[in-house]
Amino acid sequence: MEVKQKNNNAVYIAWRFWFLLGFLALCALVLFYRAIDLHVFEQAFLSGQGDARTIRFELLDAHRGVITDRNGEPLAISAPVETVYANPKQMNLSAGDMKKLAKSLGLSFDWLKRKIDRNKTKSFIYLKRKMAPHEVEAVLALNLDGVYSRREYKRYYPAGEVAAHVVGFTDIDENHRGWTVVVNE
Residue 131 class from Cβ within 10 Å (0-12 exposed, 13-18 middle, 19+ buried)? Predict the structure, then answer.
C-alpha cells in the first residue's frame, strides 16, 4: 500500500510539474506573441501615440536684446511697435469706414481699397507694419471687423552706421543681415 501511495504521489507531483511547466510556456508564448504584435504590427500607431505625448511645438515670440559697447553705450536697441493686419474675409466695410481706416493708418483711400479688394479671398494681409503703439490705438478704436494688431519689435541703431559693420542689421521681419562679432569677456 505504501508503494502505491508513493506512486500516486510521484504521478501527482509529475502531473503538477508538467502542468505548471506547460502553463508557464503558454504564458511565455502569449507574451512573445504580444511583443511581436506591438513591435511589428502596431509600431506606427504606438510611435505616433508616444510622439503625441512627448513632442510639442510652441512658437515663442522673443525680441532681440540690447547690444552695448564696452562703455555701456547702446549700439542696437529693440523697441516695441505694433503692426496692423486684417482678415479680408471678415471685413465688411462701408466707404466711410474705409476712409476712416485709411486716414488713421496714414494711407491713401484708393491704395487701401485696392489692396483689400485684391485680397478678398485671403485670411491675412498686412495693412501697416511697425507703427507706434499710440497710433495703433486710434486704429483699433474704430472697432472695425477684421482689423487687428500684433506686437513686434523694431531695431534701432543709436550710433548709426558707426558700428553697423560690427553689429549687423535686421530687416523688417527681424532677420539678421550682416556680421556679428561675439566677444568673450
Answer: buried
Q: How does pLDDT run across 163-185, given as a tens digit for each residue?
A: 766 777 677 776 666 554 444 44
Tens digits of per-residue pLDDT, 132-152? Answer: 888 899 888 898 888 999 988
Q: How far is CA 36 from CA 14, 23, 49, in A?
A: 33, 20, 18
The whole-angstrom separation of Cα 79 and Cα 94 is 35
Please count the other Cβ atoms lying within 10 Å of the Cβ belonging to residue 182. 4
Is residue 8 predicted with pLDDT exceeding 60?
A: yes
Nearest alpha carbon to residue 9 among 22, 24, 20, 17: 17
Show me where the domains of the chain are located.
2-54, 67-177
pTM higher than the cut 0.85: no
Q: How many CB atoms are located within 10 Å of the residue 102 CB?
A: 17
Tell me which residue has cell 506547460.
Answer: 22
**Residue with grid cell 496692423, as numbered in its chain:** 84
CATH code that applies to domain 67-177:
3.90.1310.10
Residue 138's CB: how many other CB atoms inside 10 A?
Answer: 13
Q: Which residues contact 109 (CB under 8 A, 6 or more apart)?
A: 98, 99, 102
CB count, 10 Å around CB of 127?
20
